[in-house]
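User: Please fill in residues for this 365-position structure.
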């Protein structure tokens, strides 16, 4: 596998780990179709996932999973959801206080059918300013939590609507779980339906927070099913290069990035050249002396996490956001260091003014 940061502890581990996932995946597929194939291709921000079921099931964040099989299947521990980066361009900078975010959260949690999910993981709402002309924007990053762990959700939970159609295959000490049969098509149809749902969800949140309806907005999915035989797991898939936001760390600059052809992120998708683009800096481990996934759970540096839905390694003390220089032209910026793997140009920089995330509200003075 061609890694962007080969010396990164998480990427060193995941490179070999995902190759073994490919092997057990192909082994399982060929139980149905002797000519079946599969591939897992890393994006530049390949990193450890928070969800233990995703890690134990053989997958990561920041990669593209694709397969071809005459029998409809979905590798269910890809943990399909719809994660979207949305930008709402504004004409003037609104005044957003901590109370505005708290009122919105209270209304959504107590009075609506939506679920608030900006208090965990890497989801956030941020007011930003474009450095070239000071134009403000609101950025929203989240997924459709309303269709995740519920009975009718997409996450693999015990006893949910498709749990009776999951088959498990094991070889060489690894396992993979596949959704097989008639419910595969319904799963895919739900996943595609939830793409516009998440866009509308973000528009609803922006409308209520800013108390206005008309926006110049753009939306970029980075976790979704591009087709029936693939999952983009935390990366943008592009058939034609277009500008996308690449997130950094809380309070730090967000970059608008125009990718280019010619790097290791260039793949063939549906008989055309396509690009895999990271959606952020990703996370790594400060130290990775031990990582042992199994069907029961995962041990990280002596800490054991059970292989169950909603169990996360997100608060592990050794799991941190990667560190890069914010200046795109710096030799230690993400863009300089990944230039051979994922070439392109930062065309704009967005400075965060105020934001709400898992740590609560913060603003620059």
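Assistant: Residues filled in for all 365 positions:
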């Amino acid at each position: 596998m061609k890694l962007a940061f080969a010396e990164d502890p998480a990427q060193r581990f995941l490179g070999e780990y995902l190759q073994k996932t490919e092997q057990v995946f192909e082994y399982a597929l060929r139980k149905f179709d002797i000519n079946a194939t599969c591939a897992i291709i890393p994006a530049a921000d390949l990193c450890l996932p928070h969800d233990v079921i995703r890690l134990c099931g053989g997958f990561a964040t920041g990669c593209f999973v694709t397969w071809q099989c005459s029998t409809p299947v979905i590798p269910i521990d890809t943990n399909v959801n719809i994660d979207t980066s949305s930008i709402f361009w504004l004409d003037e900078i609104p005044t957003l206080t901590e109370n505005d975010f708290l009122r919105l959260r209270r209304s959504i949690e107590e009075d609506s059918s939506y679920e608030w999910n900006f208090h965990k993981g890497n989801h956030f709402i941020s007011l930003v300013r474009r450095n070239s002309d000071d134009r403000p924007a609101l950025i929203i990053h989240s997924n459709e939590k309303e269709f995740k762990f519920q009975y009718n959700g997409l996450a693999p939970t015990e006893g949910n609507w498709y749990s009776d159609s999951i088959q498990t295959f094991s070889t060489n000490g690894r396992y993979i779980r596949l959704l097989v049969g008639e419910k595969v098509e319904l799963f895919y149809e739900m996943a595609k339906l939830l793409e516009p749902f998440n866009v509308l969800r973000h528009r609803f949140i922006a409308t209520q927070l800013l108390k206005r309806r008309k926006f110049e907005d753009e939306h970029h999915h980075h976790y979704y099913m591009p087709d029936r035989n693939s999952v983009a797991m935390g990366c943008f898939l592009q058939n034609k290069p277009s500008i996308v936001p690449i997130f950094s760390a809380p309070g730090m600059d967000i970059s608008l990035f125009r990718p280019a052809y010619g790097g290791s992120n260039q793949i063939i998708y549906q008989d055309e050249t396509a690009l895999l683009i990271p959606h952020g800096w990703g996370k790594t481990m400060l130290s990775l002396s031990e990582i042992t996934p199994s069907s029961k759970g995962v041990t990280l540096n002596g800490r054991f996490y059970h292989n169950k839905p909603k169990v996360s390694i997100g608060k592990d003390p050794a799991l941190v956001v990667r560190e890069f220089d914010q200046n795109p032209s710096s030799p230690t910026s993400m863009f300089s260091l990944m230039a051979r793997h994922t070439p392109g140009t930062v065309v704009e920089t967005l400075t965060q003014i105020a934001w709400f995330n898992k740590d609560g509200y913060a603003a620059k003075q």
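For context: The first strand starts at residue 37 and ends at 47.
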